[in-house]
Amino acid sequence: MSYHSPVLLQECLDALNIKKDGLYVDATFGGGGHSKAILDLLSSSGRLIAFDRDQEAIANRISDERLVLAHHDYRFLKRFARYYGFDKVDGILADLGISSHQIDAAERGFSTRFKESKLDMRMDQDAALSAYEVLNNYDGSKLNRLFKSYGELKNTNAIVKRLLNFRSIKPIEFAKDVFKALDGMTPKSKENQFYAQVFQAVRIEVNQELDSLKLFLEQCEKILKPNGRLVVMSYHSLEDRIVKRFIKNGFNTAHTVLPELQKKWSLKALNTKPIIPCDKEIQLNSRARSAKLRIAEKIEDES
Question: pTM of the entire structure?
Answer without folding.
Answer: 0.90
